[in-house]
Specification:
Elements (H helix, E strand, L loop, with lengths): L1 H29 L4 H10 L6 H10 L12 E3 L5 E3 L14 H12 L5 H18 L6 H13 L1 H4 L8 H5 L7 H17 L2 H17 L5 H17 L6 H15 L5 H13 L1 H4 L6 H14 L4 H14 L1 H13 L5 H17 L1 H4 L3 H9 L7 H6 L1 H14 L3 E4 L4 E5 L4 E6 L4 E7 L7 E4 L5 E6 L4 E6 L12 E7 L9 H7 E6 L2 E6 L7 E3 L1
Antiparallel strand pairs: 1-2, 3-4, 4-5, 5-6, 7-8, 8-9, 9-10, 11-12, 12-13
Helix pairs in contact: 2-5, 5-6, 5-9, 10-11, 11-12, 11-13, 12-13, 13-16, 15-16, 15-18, 16-17, 16-18, 17-20, 18-22
Length: about 525
């Protein structure tokens, strides 16, 4: 009986061990950050460089310095390997035992070999450390370690060879997000370390290579263009005519390079981010705009990147963005799918950059209102939800816009001193109210929609307009019903403050004006 019990216990123990081993293997493959990440990171860390970092790695990251080191290398053409072999020379390490000397020497020497090896070592360390950020207990320690890598590591490591920018750019649009973000953070950190003179010398060298190396492949040329674009958008001080012109042309070409999704994605992002720079040098911006617009709704992988780029363009040049978008929407062959995508971009622009759109609110509103045309019921029904979201976003964000639900009237106060009133049932403009001598700051419909109030901060005037409807239901000529003077603001108000702090509302026949920047109470008018 005892033997049978021992045999059963042994079998259970073996099964338990097998299950644990199987779970460990599954965790190694499926759980980030996993044991493999810890093991590899422990070998890559620069042990012995700084005592405080060693303690941080041991106590907070729960890593240990390996007793034996290993060497890394690069795989080249035809699978040939270039391995880094540690030197036998030991300098400036007196009073340390042989093991400590060897480990410290190896950890320092591997950063003194080549720009490519430094690139891959650093990218590996940052990527694996970023993976540990997802673990709550190690988050603070990882953040401190990443801060050290991006600020003082290069200064603390003797004879440090900086990583290759060109190699790092290869990972600018890496499909693995941790790798992509790591590469970008390293590039940004080392750009910050360089003076403007050093960066100018770098761009001059790249430009020379682009012009003189005739046999360079498409890939290496594209990488150089991307590197110039990254430097130009992050450090605009280095810009000159030749640099901006060549880079803009290169990005434009990559935008239409359908065969390489990573290069196309990078071009989409950098065109949007640096549009203020490239705009002057892009020959036909409408083609660029249409391509970005097309990508935003046809490419699942690049749609968000393209939408973000279009938002950047909208902020950089609102008249260009809104005019081009309005022209596209007005075309008879403008598809429903395109219109829906346009509305999504407009909604995002309203939420992210409301101030930039203030001078162009009538055109912005018309992009949405055109989708309500009763002559095109298929379009109206298909994108009614998108249209409604845009119109509600406008009403919520801008005090110079008002909507009356029952009558379906929509009013827009403009910077050209007039109020435009639209009928959403027919998707047409029905009134233009003129009388103010300054831009309109706020508008508001009363309860039954038959009266609308308008207010201008600059002239301190409130006007009430009576919207007349004829016997047959057509819009008649509006009449100015009343006018009130208020105290002019003595402050030089920013548009953002007006959007956040100005409000005008009706309560039956009483009108209240709220100006949060004033010390006085709300103004009421009968």
């Amino acid at each position: 009986t005892q033997q049978t019990q021992q045999t059963q216990q042994t079998q259970q123990t073996q099964q338990t061990q097998q299950t644990q081993h199987q779970n460990l293997q599954e965790n190694l493959l499926t759980t980030p950050p996993n044991l493999a990440s810890y093991i590899v990171l422990s070998y890559l860390l620069p042990w012995g460089l700084r005592e405080d970092l060693d303690q941080l790695s041991k106590l907070d990251l729960k890593l240990g310095c390996p007793e034996q080191q290993f060497t890394c290398g690069l795989r080249g053409v035809a699978g040939k390997l270039a391995l880094a072999i540690p030197s036998a020379a030991i300098k400036n390490f007196d009073n340390e035992n042989e093991s400590q000397l060897t480990n410290k020497l190896l950890n320092i020497q591997k950063w003194q070999i080549s720009i490519n090896l430094s690139c891959y070592y650093l990218l590996s360390i940052v990527t694996l450390t970023r993976a540990l950020l997802y673990v709550g207990e190690t988050k603070n320690a990882c953040s401190r370690f990443l801060s050290f890598l991006s600020t003082s590591f290069a200064d603390d490591c003797p004879n440090f060879i900086e990583p290759s920018f060109l190699q790092l750019v290869r990972f600018w649009e890496d499909p693995v997000d941790d790798v992509k973000q790591s590469a970008r953070s390293i590039i940004s950190a080392f750009l910050d370390r360089k003076s403007i003179e050093e960066l100018r010398a770098t761009t001059i060298s790249i430009l020379h290579q682009l012009k003189t190396e005739i046999a360079q492949g498409i890939r290496i040329r594209s990488l150089r263009i991307l590197l110039l674009a990254i430097i130009s958008t992050e450090k605009t001080e280095v810009l000159n005519e030749e640099l901006a012109s060549l880079t803009a042309a290169g990005l434009e070409k990559m935008l239409f390079q359908e065969s390489n999704l990573q290069f196309q994605s990078a071009a989409v992002e950098l065109i949007g981010k640096g549009f203020r720079i490239w705009q002057k040098y892009i020959k036909n911006y409408q083609i660029i705009f249409k391509k970005l617009f097309s990508i935003s709704f046809t490419s699942k992988s690049l749609s968000k990147t393209a939408q973000t780029a279009l938002i950047h363009i909208g902020v950089a040049d609102p008249p260009l963005f809104i005019t081009t978008l309005n022209d596209e929407v007005s075309k008879p062959d403008f598809s429903i799918q395109n219109h829906a995508a346009a509305l999504a971009i407009v909604e995002a622009l309203i939420k992210n950059s409301p101030v930039a759109l203030v001078p162009h609110l009538p055109r912005v509103a018309e992009v949405a209102i055109k989708a309500l045309d009763p002559a095109d019921p298929e379009r109206r029904d298909a994108i009614i939800k998108s249209t409604t979201r845009v119109l509600h976003a406008l009403v919520r964000k801008y005090p110079m816009i008002s909507f009356h639900q029952i009558s379906q009237k929509f009013a827009v106060g403009t910077t050209k001193n007039v109020i435009l009133v639209y009928d959403l049932k027919s998707a047409t403009r029905i009134h233009v109210l003129e009388g103010h001598n300054s831009p309109i700051s706020a508008v508001s419909f009363n309860g039954d929609g038959k009266m609308i109030a308008s207010y201008s901060i600059d002239d301190g005037i409130i006007k009430c307009w009576q919207l007349v409807t004829t016997f047959f239901g057509f819009a008649g000529q509006p009449k100015e019903h009343a006018s009130f003077s208020t105290t002019k603001s003595k402050r030089d108000l920013k548009t953002s403050m007006i959007l956040e702090s100005l409000k005008m509302t009706w309560n039956v026949k009483t009108l209240s004006l709220t100006r949060s920047w004033e010390d006085t109470k709300d103004k009421t008018f009968q």
